[in-house]
Amino acid sequence: xxxxxxxxxxxxxxxxxxxxxxxxxxxxxxxxxxxxxxxxxxxxxxxxxxxxxxxxxxxxxxxxxxxxxxxxxxxxxxxxxxxxxxxxxxxxxxxxxxxxxxxxxxxxxxxxxxxxxxxxxxxxxxxxxxxxxxxxxxxxxxxxxxxxxxxxxxxxxxxxxxxxxxxxxxxxxxxxxxxxxxxxxxxxxxx
Length: 191
Hints:
Layout: H1 2-10, H2 12-26, H3 33-47, H4 54-64, H5 67-71, H6 77-84, E1 85-88, E2 91-94, H7 96-106, H8 116-127, H9 145-158, H10 166-187
Antiparallel strand pairs: 1-2
Helix pairs in contact: 1-10, 2-3, 3-4, 6-7, 8-10
């Protein structure tokens, strides 16, 4: 784990993440469409979250009145879904990964980031016989943030990573996923 965190801190990832933290710390509230749009655009630019209707999504977030909910000391899984689900030009869009990243940048101590690369590496670990979490039929990370949070918490406990923050675990898993992705490209085999 320390190797992957060292790689994160040594690269541009840490600089970009620090820039986002500075921005979100400077504009902690979500009641002004302009401020939310700036945070959203920066997050979208750095993490490629595919948000194309920035003003519409920013308006959606401000209309939700999320500040009190983010201030609570527990994860509000319903908040993820409310931020993620937005109507744009008559169509419902679900920006799930974006919503987890947006909340995580406000509360890194509570909200783990969902990323499809990370989900892939966790699935691979489970398929290889790791037992950090068990699932009942129908449970999926991509459709239920509570299950994602549970899996990250169980991963943390199973591997004795209590000394590491939720954000450290996010960084580690993402770096591990990128490493495995690079190995797959080199060897030509599936993750």
